[in-house]
């Protein structure tokens, strides 16, 4: 049995190590917990098992596979990470649903709370060292290629817009007309790939192909099981809290504007030297 992780980074690393050997139910647990780490601190075994679509007993076995004595042991680690900054928003959202009965104003409050939690989680999910490396790689690129389809498209288009406004050469790969422009990625360029589960095959293929050529690739993605969390790719992880079946992009867009402004600032600074 492996030693139980004591940090969020350690938890993610252990998930990645275990994933190839896990049977179906254990893999479901890993994928759900990897995508929703903030929920572990405030949810019951039954709630997490329902989210992963497994029996509570399967989730308990998964905790032990991760090296914990049980669910309470694993939850304690996550409460140590999240509790000082995060109140129990699950309870708050539940109360809003009960009082508002689905009115537009109640929906607004619910999405605001989900967005707030996503933003607070962002400081835990993004590795500051990887963020620094990403900015450095993008700032030195001749052209930045941005790809993100379906749910990720608003983020990709915003990044392209921001780069254009700052005079930074960027190309948006939007898949219009099913045209593949990956041949436009040249030596000296860099790629920003944005994809969330269920992952876009086109985005993953472009990211992996660029990484195989030794080009800088920055991925904005969700879980440690994401196919763009692979060697040669700088991963910036975002965990968006959902309400019902909908997930806003509050944290993802905040990360995108951070990346764009940081790259623009770095380029301006280098041009002055």
UniProtKB/TrEMBL annotation:
Family annotation (SUPFAM superfamilies): Homeodomain-like, SIS domain
Q: Which UniProt keywords apply?
A: DNA-binding, Transcription, Transcription regulation
- Tell me a GO biological process for this protein: carbohydrate derivative metabolic process
Q: Name one GO molecular function term.
A: carbohydrate derivative binding
The cross-references to Gene3D superfamilies, in alphabetical order and at most eight, read: Glucose-6-phosphate isomerase like protein, domain 1, Winged helix-like DNA-binding domain superfamily/Winged helix DNA-binding domain
Which PANTHER family does the entry link to?
A: GLUCOKINASE, RPIR-FAMILY TRANSCRIPTIONAL REGULATOR
Taking every annotated instance into account, which residue ranges of this chain make up the domain HTH rpiR-type? Answer: 9-85
Protein's UniProt name: Putative HTH-type transcriptional regulator YbbH
Q: Matching CDD domains, A to Z?
A: SIS_RpiR (cd05013)
Chain ranges of the SIS domain: 134-271
Q: Which organism is it from?
A: Tritonibacter multivorans
């Amino acid at each position: 049995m492996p030693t139980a992780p004591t940090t969020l980074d350690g938890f993610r690393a252990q998930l990645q190590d275990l994933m190839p050997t896990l049977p179906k139910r254990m893999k479901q647990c890993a994928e759900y917990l990897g995508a929703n780490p903030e929920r572990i601190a405030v949810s019951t075994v039954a709630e997490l098992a329902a989210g992963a679509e497994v029996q509570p007993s399967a989730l308990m076995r998964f905790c032990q596979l991760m090296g914990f004595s049980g669910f309470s042991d694993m939850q304690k680690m996550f409460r140590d990470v999240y509790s000082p900054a995060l109140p129990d928003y699950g309870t708050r959202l539940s109360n809003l649903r009960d009082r508002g009965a689905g009115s537009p104003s109640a929906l607004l409050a619910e999405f605001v709370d989900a967005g707030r939690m996503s933003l607070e989680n962002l400081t835990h999910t993004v590795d500051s060292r990887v963020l620094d490396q990403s900015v450095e790689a993008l700032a030195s690129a001749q052209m930045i290629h941005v790809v993100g389809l379906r749910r990720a498209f608003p983020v990709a288009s915003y990044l392209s817009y921001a780069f254009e406004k700052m005079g930074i050469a960027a190309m948006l790969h939007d898949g219009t007309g099913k045209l593949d422009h990956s041949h436009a990625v040249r030596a000296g360029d860099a790629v920003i790939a944005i994809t969330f589960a269920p992952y876009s095959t086109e985005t993953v293929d472009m990211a992996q192909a660029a990484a195989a050529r030794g080009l800088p690739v920055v991925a904005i993605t969700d879980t440690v099981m994401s196919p763009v969390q692979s060697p040669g790719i700088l991963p910036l992880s975002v965990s968006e809290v959902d309400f019902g079946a909908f997930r806003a992009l509050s944290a993802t867009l905040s990360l995108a504007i951070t990346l764009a402004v940081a790259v623009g600032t770095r380029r301006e600074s280098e041009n002055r030297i």
